[in-house]
Structures are given as structure tokens and as C-alpha cells.
Design brief:
Two copies of one chain form a homodimer.
Chain A (H helix, E strand, L loop, with lengths): L28 H14 L12 H8 L3 H13 L3 E4 L3 E4 L8 H9 L6 H25 L2 H13 L5 H16 L2 H22 L2 H19 L3 H25 L1
Antiparallel strand pairs in A: 1-2
Helix pairs in contact in A: 1-3, 2-3, 5-7, 5-8, 5-9, 5-10, 6-7, 6-9, 7-8, 9-10
Chain A binds a DNA duplex (30 and 30 nucleotides) through α3.
Chain lengths: 250, 250
DNA sequence: GGTCATTCAGTGGTTCGACCAATTAAAATA
DNA sequence: TATTTTAATTGGTCGAACCACTGAATGACC
């Protein structure tokens, strides 16, 4: 039975050989570690099922204390990126099984600039979900939501069109009365705030959005679910196409 | 300047007086702490903006070591529930502003039994999103996904029907090739694992699901997006109705 | 009296070294 | 050979210390 710590054991070779993690600068140490391991997992350098070196070893390799490394591992555990098993070891999980939007965000931001594949994912997901949300909103909305929509439509000349657009989407999500939808839409909007500039850089798209805001507001006010769904679907598919074109041409 | 630790200072009174956190049993200590603080935030006992006692104090109150408390706080930080400011303190955040699905899950699980409104939200959101995902999957799937679906369909007599159902949804999400959709579906599935029992308690629903798995697999294998969308839509609307009925009648 | 730079106690961040507890596999035993 | 025992490995907790940042009290200066 071991009684002493850090028995100066030679590198264990029955686990993945060497994952080349860099020693780290002095400040937000554990955050740097989180980023490093997160990136190695997301890029596939660390694959699902692989066992990380023991904490004592890994800490030494990173040139940090074990407690600091453990704080980093705890964060990665919450993000669903690693599985920590008492008495056994730390195992890499499949990051696509993660439900952490933090991880998704890390995937999106891991490349400089805009990753066309990720933006395409976002725009597709919006196109898939929002038409039905618009229909739900048309049915379940109350006067308060209609008032809010009209406010945005009327005030939007004083409002950047991207902000107005996000506000319209957000209000429609609220009007749908569905908690999950509100949550998901909040996340979509946070991402679209980054990427919407590619779409709204063209003036004709801005005009189209203004018209869209008027039309969807009217459809929801009239409780016309079918029309709301159609309007939303059309504008999102148009925006999808134009945004991808703008990104590829840039 | 302080040179010694734990200067036996009297309880500081310029922060929230006493949040009554219970000392904790010996195993998964930091997880118990996470749960306690999480609950206190979600129930509103700890309000946004409030400052937690200093780590050294809080650790003493919980009867745990400071390192253990810090691991718990790091997890809460990732969940977006607290804001840790070096040299200042730990502040409670507004959990409704969080984009962490972990937090949403904690909110859903905080009541005993099943909250009909939450389940209705979940089933509506599924009905809104998944038909389009099925259509996407029919177009973008490759052979690997078809093989996986057939495996599930054939093996599912040995598999609890709920697990088979979740696996089918998950495979379809992967086949869609849309990262956002995969993440969102993972989350839906984790919730539905809790609530699906209300639906599958009826044998006729289990049979319907088996047929659904066969049909959607076939439609996707044939790249028939229209049929896949229709099949998914029908089964989800049926499941929505039956599940809500089962819950209300229970 | 008001403004600014300084000081310093308090707080989170990191380090060290140790022991506890769960797991696994090798070794001893039936 | 099958089972039990043992010991090494690994994550979990502990406690004590020092480092680094923040903000408010202090005091010099205008």
C-alpha cells in the first residue's frame, strides 16, 4: 500500500502515450488548462474513450499543482467532455454527446473568423424550428406580445436592423409560451448576433427584413398560424441562402 | 498584510447573513455542495447579485476543505450560476439569464413528479423541430447511419422500447449532420428518458413505436425526405396527445 | 474642501504534502 | 481452476501556506 505521494514513478505507458499539453502562464491557470484539453477533444486529438494520464502525472506535465488541474477537470466534467471515475481514471467522452452549449460555442469559435459549416448548421436549425414556433405563437399569443411586436416594427427605424430582428424572434418565442423554445431561441440569437452581419451587410436584405417584421406581426395579430409559418419559412430560407453566399464570397 | 491563514475571524456581517448550508456526508462531497447551492439559487433563496460568504468561511460552515468547496464553485461557475471574481468574491447570477441547459434541467427536476406544463413544452418543441430534422437526415445520411438504424430496429426486441426510441432519435440527429440539432436533441432525449414512461406504459403505444422505427428507417434509407418528415410528424403528434392524456389521467 | 495616489486588509488563485477511499489486477489460497 | 486476499494505482479530501487581484480607507497634495 502506498504511503508516500508522488513516488517519482516513471511515465506510465499503458495509457495514451503523450498528449503534449503545454505548461501554462501564471493567471487563470485552470482556465487555460480547460481550453487546452477542450481543444484537444474537439479537434479529435483526444478521442472518446481514451484515458488521460493520472492527475499527478498530468499536473506535473502541465507544470501546475494537482489541485489546479482538478479544478480544470471539474469544469470539463460539467461540460460533459470527460468522465472522472474514482479509483480508475479520467476518460475522454464523445463531445457530440455533450449537451453543453458551452462546448458547442467552443466548437464554433475554435477557428478564426466564421466557420461556414457551423453557420450553416445554425441557419438550418433556425429554418427547421422557427416556422413552427411562429405558428405556435400565432395561436397562443396574447395582446401583450402583439403590442411588443408592433412597438418593434414601428421603432425599428431607430434600431439597428439586426437588433430589431433579434427582438422580433425573441418576442415570437415568448409568445409561443414554450419554455424550451425560449431557451433555445435565446441561444440561436446569441450566435446570430455574431453572424447576422453577413446577411444585413446588403441593403436589399435589410428592406426585406423590415417587410418581414411587418408581415409576421400582422399574421400573428390575426392569429393566422398558417400564414405566420409560411412567412417565417420563406424569410429564413432566403436569409440562409444569402448569408452563405455572402460568407463564401467574402 | 495577512501572513497566516484562517485568522479565526468572526462571521462577516456585510454579506448575506446565513444561508444555512448543511454539512455534508462523506462521498461525492463537492457534488452535494453543488446540489445544495444550485437548489438555493433556483428556488430563489439565493438571489441574483448576492455575494456568497468567503470561501474560507463557507468551507468552514459546510465542514469541508476549501479545495473541495472550490471544486464545487467551479462547477457552478460553468453552469452559469455564480460569478467568481478574483480578489472580490463569489456572486450569485440570475439563473434565468443562463444559457446552460444544465440549469434548465435542474429547474425541471426540482419539483417531485412530472410538471405537465414542462412536459407539454418538451413534446411541443420535439414536434416542431424533429420532422424537419428527419427530412434533413433523409437527405444527408450516409450508409453508416442507415446501418446503425437497422441495427436498432432489429435488436430492439432485446432493448427496452424507450431506449430504442431514444437511440433512433439520436441516430437521426447525427445523420442530419447538424451540430446544433445534435446538441438540442441530446437534451430533449435526456428529458424524454424521464417522461417517456408515461407514453410507453401503454402496450399499443409500444407497438406503434416499433412500427415507427421500421418506417422511418426505411424512409431515410430511401432518401425520401417528404415521407420521413410525415412519419416523424405523425408519431410525435400522436405521442404528444397520448402522453399528456396519460399524465392527466394518472 | 476636493482630488488623487497610496496603502493594506480581504478575497480568490495556486502550491505543497499528506492521507482517505474506490478500483483494478496481481498474488495467494482453497 | 476458481476464489479470496492483497497491494498498487488513481481519484477525493484535507490543512496550511503563500501569491495576486480588488476595493475601500487613508492621507498627501492642490
Amino acid at each position: 500500500m502506498r504511503q508516500k505521494e508522488d513516488p517519482k514513478g516513471e511515465a506510465v505507458e499503458n495509457v495514451i502515450s503523450n498528449i503534449k499539453l503545454n505548461p501554462v502562464s501564471r493567471s487563470r491557470l485552470h482556465e487555460d488548462i480547460v481550453s487546452q484539453i477542450q481543444n484537444k477533444i474537439i479537434t479529435g486529438e483526444l478521442k472518446a474513450g481514451e484515458k488521460l494520464p493520472a492527475e499527478r502525472e498530468l499536473a506535473m506535465e502541465l507544470n501546475v499543482n494537482r489541485a489546479t488541474l482538478r479544478e480544470a477537470l471539474k469544469k470539463l466534467e460539467v461540460q460533459g467532455l470527460v468522465d472522472i471515475r474514482h479509483g480508475d481514471g479520467v476518460y475522454v467522452k464523445d463531445f457530440l454527446e455533450s449537451e453543453s452549449l458551452e462546448v458547442l460555442k467552443a466548437m464554433m469559435y475554435r477557428e478564426e473568423g466564421a466557420d461556414p459549416e457551423i453557420i450553416d448548421s445554425l441557419l438550418s436549425a433556425r429554418s427547421a424550428l422557427l416556422p413552427e414556433v411562429a405558428a405556435m405563437a400565432a395561436i397562443k399569443r396574447d395582446e401583450q406580445h402583439v403590442r411588443k411586436l408592433k412597438e418593434i416594427v414601428e421603432a425599428k427605424s431607430n434600431m439597428p436592423v439586426l437588433e430589431a430582428d433579434l427582438a422580433v424572434h425573441h418576442t415570437i418565442a415568448r409568445a409561443s409560451g414554450n419554455y424550451l423554445v425560449i431557451f433555445i431561441l435565446n441561444f440561436f440569437n446569441k450566435l446570430f448576433r455574431e453572424y447576422g452581419k453577413f446577411y444585413f451587410s446588403a441593403p436589399e436584405n435589410e428592406n426585406r427584413s423590415r417587410k418581414f417584421h411587418r408581415d409576421i406581426c400582422e399574421a400573428i395579430a390575426k392569429r393566422d398560424a398558417h400564414k405566420a409559418r409560411r412567412i417565417m419559412k420563406d424569410v429564413l430560407e432566403y436569409a440562409h441562402e444569402r448569408t452563405m453566399k455572402a460568407i463564401i464570397d467574402r
